[in-house]
Amino acid sequence: MHTNYYFLRQLAPALTRQLAGYRVVTCFSQEKDELVIGLTDGAQEFWLKAHLAAAGPMLALPESFHRARQNSVDLLPELLGQVVESVAAWPHDRVLQFTFRSGATLLYKLYSTRPNAVFRASADAPAELFHQRYTADADLQPPLPATEPAELPANPLKAYPSLGDLGLAYLRTQDYDTAPLDAKWQLVQKVVAELEQPSAFYIIRLDGRTRLSLLTAGEVELMLPASDPIGALRRFVPMLLNRRAYEAELRQVRQALEKRADEAATIAQHACRRLHSLENTVGYRQTADLIMAHLSQIPAGAAQVEVVDFYQDNQPRIIKLKPAETPQRTAQNLYRKAKNQQLETRELSARAERRETEALWCLERLEELEALPAGELRTLRQWRKQHGLDPAAVAKAVQELPFKVFEDSGFTILVGRNAQNNDLLTQRYAHKDDLWLHAKDVTGSHVVIRHRAGHSVPEPVLERAAQLAAWYSRRKNDSLCPVTYTPKKFVRKPKGAIAGQVVVERENVLLVVPANPFERNGG
């Protein structure tokens, strides 16, 4: 309500008393949608800082302001030297008008959409617009005086459109919705009288938002004297900005944790389903044992054979064969697959346990988040940093690095885009203590997990990076992919080697299922 007409009509005379005779000495902008004006009477200074963004305009009156040395541009040169005569609020509108002794005017159009500032050096001079795209504002004029309607509208609120949502919220606490029409008119007129002569200003919380109100709607947090609208605005704006930042960061970290918990639980569930499937189907080893036990019964070139399955209570079973392959070779291939299947089973079991642990960790952090002191931005940021949930470093990496960038548990994972980009990543960007990964024995992307001082790479992060290395390689469609990983200091590029080619002096191997990083149900 700090840009509502009823507050502006209280603010305007207070600004006139404060600023009459003050001279404009500076006018500039150093942020998008920001207009800063500095005034002085020779002994004291006064600052007006308008944020004229379509997401919500704001007029602040900071007691002091320090202009930045860079990224600052002077504006409205003809405004400099102008001496304030008066400040007025346009009737039933959200426009604050500064009139200067020379006849120049400056309008602050504080509409919730398309806000603007309009300056005229004289009554017949062309308008200078802060937002030049809103060309219609050059013809902005005060509304005509209201006339008594021939017939009162059936809805009293239409007669007072400046009440806004806070006025309506307050009326509803007075049983406005169920009142008869005559009572509704009386309630509205009573509220208008309170707005025109407020007993105090209130900083309130309503529907999760911090507001400056002339009425006791919502939860009242602070009551300020009605005689000092400038002081009320100076108390309200810093509180609002701090809470907006807090609420935005709180929402961001909550959504990130919920998403991460959901993804971890989904991956764990997927791994458990796959594990159950492997444990409850006939394994490769059993099939190979049956083939070897019945070699004498298998004719050459047979496409299938029926055997007695001694693993399933001697039930008959048909085993499909490859006519061009000997039964011994078929059994040998099945034994090899069985070995890989054992590895996959161990990997799946470990993955399910890790992801379930990660999901539980996220849920515990969400509980801690709800218990943090409300509105304390510094405490929230310290908590985020403590748990590796601060996105600042990751956002900077995404903006600056020419690689695919992923983030997991506070660790940054970089993925090369092609052979030349792999060289750039490994030879120029990777630090000797970073962890380097690559799909074993095939072409693919180089992957680097950025080192964090004092932190070892957790197993879920290593697994995620290995899955990325597998996915961005020739093995992306394999059911299981071995991935080499080692500290970057053990990776070197031989002289004369082609782009992307390196030699690994020491290596460890991790077996993973290639996972599309853009699918949530990947393993």
TrEMBL record:
Pfam families from the UniProt entry: NFACT-R_1, NFACT_N
NFACT RNA-binding domain span: 407-496
Highest taxon above the source species: Bacteria
Molecular function GO labels: ribosomal large subunit binding; tRNA binding
InterPro entries per the UniProt record, alphabetical: NFACT_RNA-bd, RQC_Subunit_NEMF
GO cellular component: RQC complex
Gene3D superfamilies linked to this entry: ibrinogen binding protein from staphylococcus aureus domain
UniProt record, GO biological process: rescue of stalled ribosome
Designated name of the protein: Predicted component of the ribosome quality control (RQC) complex, YloA/Tae2 family, contains fibronectin-binding (FbpA) and DUF814 domains
Organism the protein comes from: Hymenobacter gelipurpurascens
